[in-house]
Design brief:
- The structure is a single chain.
- By secondary structure, the protein is of the alpha/beta class.
- Helices cover 39% and strands 25% of the residues.
- It has three helices and seven strands.
- The strands form two sheets. A five-stranded mixed β-sheet has the order 5-4-3-7-6. A two-stranded parallel sheet has the order 1-2.
- A hairpin with a 2-residue loop joins strand 6 and strand 7.
Length: 155
């Protein structure tokens, strides 16, 4: 079975590499200190601090494994074409239903974070935008009905 690939920009890959480096160094050092302190409290069978530290350690190690896998299978996307929306583009839109102005950065799935305005090229809005040009209107199928967006600018 072929490994899943993760499309991302060069900047996105660098961001994931920094996160991985931080988890492997500062994150592991911090959790080792928490485990050391929790062990000093004595009986581990009823030590909630120890249990919490072990749980946090498992989360950190899982995230490290996830990042290593994503970086190992990363495919860097060239973002040199600024005429059409592609991965790495910053797109300013106007939602036609209420004239709201929205800016998104189109990123790979591994980098997506909608609260920061980073949406995946695999998301419904991302799929509709990829390949579209400035001035065009795109329609996104959503559970609440079709949403129309006009592309104001591509950066």
């Amino acid at each position: 079975m072929a490994a899943k690939t993760f499309k991302m920009t060069a900047a996105g890959k660098e961001e994931l590499e920094r996160e991985l480096d931080n988890l492997k160094t500062a994150g592991r050092i911090d959790i080792a200190e928490k485990l050391k302190v929790a062990r000093s409290y004595g009986d581990l069978s009823e030590n909630s601090e120890y249990d919490e530290a072990k749980s946090e350690q498992a989360k950190i190690e899982a995230r490290i494994n996830e990042l290593e896998y994503q970086l190992e299978h990363a495919v860097i996307i060239d973002v040199s074409d600024k005429d059409a929306v592609s991965m790495g583009s910053k797109v300013t839109l106007i939602r036609k239903s209420d004239n709201a102005r929205i800016t998104y950065e189109i990123v790979g799935f591994a980098q997506s974070n909608p609260s920061e305005g980073k949406i995946s090229d695999e998301s419904p809005v991302g799929k509709a935008l990829v390949g579209a040009k400035q001035g065009e209107t795109v329609v996104v199928e959503a559970p609440i009905g079709n949403l129309e967006f006009e592309i104001v600018s591509i950066g």
